[in-house]
Design brief:
The protein has about 290 residues and is α/β, with parallel strands linked by helices. It has a single domain, classed as Formyl transferase, N-terminal domain (Rossmann fold, 3-Layer(aba) Sandwich), CATH 3.40.50.170. Helices cover about 30% and strands about 15% of the residues. The strands form two sheets. The chain has a nine-stranded mixed beta sheet, with helices on both faces. Strands 8-11 form a two-stranded antiparallel sheet. Helix 1 packs parallel to helix 2 and helix 1 packs across helix 7. The chain is globular. The relative contact order is 0.15.
Length: about 290
């Protein structure tokens, strides 16, 4: 893959900034989106946004990708507490490199270092995003980043935050400790307090148990399953923002009723039992805007 890597300056002790040799053209009036995400959840949304751009040219532009560096032990991304503790070093490297490669192929710059630095703030402001989407990202954002986009900054979290379940870095463990059979994935506004921002949307319930009623042996399968709907939900968020912008309105969204937006067929798929097969990606039918 053709790209160049810049070493992050002394403010960050890990990561890099990757720039494609063939970047996208400068954005016009498209909605500019910055994506902060890693692992399978970040990859799914990245692929969904790239496909959306291909199928609906002129509506949005993914201007920058920020992802975890789970390989460098100096990276402050809660390596042991978060999902990365369930992957080998080689698997973690493969997931990071896949996001970098996908970004480079699409002409999108990708950053893997510390985000609360002057160095990254300059990069971020050069992207000038209208909206920020975050999923499976291991760093806490500061107000400069989450207040910057005029249409808001939104994070996906794989537990029912509306019921105060699964706050923090280990939501799956709490879901299982409580003996729950299903869980939604929640979208909330990003704030200074982790997982505490106002809730913007809640997915339909997702079955997290196996056919026999037990839980999967590896929580990575739950990560795959709960994140299977995030690409669909991201498209709905951005369509709502595009509609809001067309009416001359700015500001973050207040709430999206995904129970009404998501078709019955998709809800049915989400209620199918989980599996122990790590190769199972729980693929859902594409959003109509991706067809």
């Amino acid at each position: 893959m053709n790209f160049s890597q810049k070493i992050v300056d002394v403010e960050s002790t890990w990561g890099g900034f990757y720039e494609p040799d063939h970047p996208q053209n400068q954005p016009g009036r498209e909605l500019k989106v910055a994506l902060f995400g890693s692992a399978t959840g970040g990859q799914l949304i990245l692929e969904s946004l790239i496909r959306f751009n291909q199928k609906n040219p002129g509506l949005l532009r993914l201007v920058g990708m920020v992802t975890d560096d789970p390989v460098d032990q100096k990276a402050k991304i809660s390596l042991k507490k978060r999902i990365w503790g369930n992957y080998t070093r080689e698997e973690s490297a493969d997931l990071m490199n896949k996001i970098i490669d996908t970004s480079m192929q699409a002409g999108i710059p990708c950053y893997t270092g510390k985000v609360k630095t002057n160095y990254f703030r300059k990069i971020f402001s050069s992207w000038d995003p209208d909206v920020l989407i975050m999923n499976c990202f291991g760093q806490k954002l500061d107000a400069y980043l989450y207040d910057y986009p005029p249409f808001g900054a939104y994070n996906f979290h794989p537990s029912n935050l509306a019921s105060h379940i699964g706050v923090g870095a280990q939501p799956f463990q709490e879901i299982m400790r409580l003996g729950l059979h299903t869980s939604p994935i929640v979208i909330h506004k990003v704030t200074e307090v982790i997982d505490d921002g106002p809730i913007v949307g809640i997915s339909p319930e997702i079955n997290i148990r196996l056919h026999d009623g037990s839980y999967p042996l590896n929580i990575i399968t739950l990560l795959h399953k709960l994140n299977s709907i995030t690409g669909w939900m991201t498209i709905d968020i951005l369509l709502e923002i595009l509609e809001q912008r067309s009416l001359g309105k700015k500001g973050a969204l207040t709430y999206i009723d995904f129970e009404k937006k998501i078709p019955k067929a998709i809800k049915h798929r989400l209620l199918i039992p989980a599996t122990n097969e790590l190769s199972e990606k729980y693929e859902l039918p594409l959003h109509p805007k991706l067809i």
